[in-house]
Amino acid sequence: MTLETELITTIFNGLSFTLEERKLLTRSFEKLHLPKHSLLLKAGEAVYEQYYVAEGCLRTYYIAPDGKEHTVQFAITDWWISDYTAFFNSSNALMHIECIQDATLYKISKNDMEQLYHHMPKLESYFRKKMERAFASFQKRIIANLSQTASERYLNFINTYPNIEQNVKNYHIASYLGITTQSLSRIRKELVQG
Amino acid sequence: MTLETELITTIFNGLSFTLEERKLLTRSFEKLHLPKHSLLLKAGEAVYEQYYVAEGCLRTYYIAPDGKEHTVQFAITDWWISDYTAFFNSSNALMHIECIQDATLYKISKNDMEQLYHHMPKLESYFRKKMERAFASFQKRIIANLSQTASERYLNFINTYPNIEQNVKNYHIASYLGITTQSLSRIRKELVQG
DNA sequence: ATAGTTTCTTACCATAGGTCAATTTTTTTC
DNA sequence: GAAAAAAATTGACCTATGGTAAGAAACTAT
């Protein structure tokens, strides 16, 4: 599949473009492959790009001053990933992005993004709606962290993201849920035994 | 101050509008006053509007199945508030919005919002950026919840939102931090004594 | 001001989840 | 497919925070 076809049929599936617009789109994105275990981004680096995940699995994580890792976001097929706080502010990353399963990504720079917004308001609309959904899901997660037990959050996670669960290690899940791997292990045992 | 002047000079401060656009803007917003202790929104209700806070203080909170309250968001002057998950999806509220200090609000419906976006792409841009900042701050909060102790989160809160702290009760802050009022009380004691 | 209500604090015990260390299981690599 | 490395589990113990209950302090309204 050509980059152009992929862009039109998968990433912006649902939107229609003129020939001119297709060219602009294709020029703005770049395809890349990333092997498992590699780092797409390190804390401290400038963040100029965001990435669309066509294939594979990645995670964004923060390393606290005490050295502990906290997974902020996973991304699988059809999700976008970056250190968005840094991306939006054109500042340096606070987080790392690690490839968990061999991935194919389409990257676009913030500058090209702004160009696209300018030429195609429908893209601004597309990304605003994407932001709205992300906002809603973050809010849901905050509520979950405030109101649920670790066990409830785990069940919720594997029900909501069965496709992610298959791709990641338990310690990734634990660091996403805000518990230790030992606690997660005990929770899983508990659930099996009833 | 007229509604129009207020809209132009405070809410959308920084943007410039034609006469036509000003009219459209003014028609879309409605001013309202809300007394302390009243509910702007109850869980279960349909959410058609979002609100700009010109004056006062409000909070959005979720009541968990066990009856406990969890504060998701505060809003003071120049913030927007709604049950955004419900607002974006045109679904029913999961949360309550309570007025904590007598408030003056400007409300706008989702429909009128869409109209404005359509006629003025710069507004879509304005709100996309607003969403980006909200996204970043939610992410920051998730990281804080995952990586910090209750005491650290409290210090962080009073440093980051000194203007909010003045307006709210300790139990509001506790429910925002995800701890009990007793724990917050112990933390405050600890901080005073050293 | 005084009574009533709401909010905050304190004390004591309970518990979810963390820590450390050892062991088993699974995955990777040659 | 054997050895090495990584991940998951388990047990014993610990700690931060929760639950309950009572009293103190701070507002509110007459």
From TrEMBL, chains A, B:
Protein name (record): Cyclic nucleotide-binding domain-containing protein
A Pfam family annotated for this UniProt entry: cNMP_binding
InterPro entries: cNMP-bd_dom, cNMP-bd_dom_sf, Env_Response_Regulators, RmlC-like_jellyroll
GO molecular function, one term: DNA-binding transcription factor activity
Organism whose genome encodes this protein: Aequorivita soesokkakensis
Leader sequence residues: none
GO cellular component terms listed in the entry, alphabetical order: cytosol
Ranges for domain Cyclic nucleotide-binding: 32-118
Origin: domain of life: Bacteria
Lineage: Bacteria, Pseudomonadati, Bacteroidota, Flavobacteriia, Flavobacteriales
